[in-house]
Amino acid sequence: MIIYPAIDIKDSKCVRLTQGKFDNITIYGDDPVETAKKWEALGG
Prior knowledge:
The chain is of the alpha+beta class.
């Protein structure tokens, strides 16, 4: 099985949308590119 991570971006920040709703988010970082590079380093 291959897992593809997804990064949601809102207001230039990496966020997780709860059930796809933009009014209920958790912010995970200020730099989407840096977040993607971290994920790549962990599993790539």
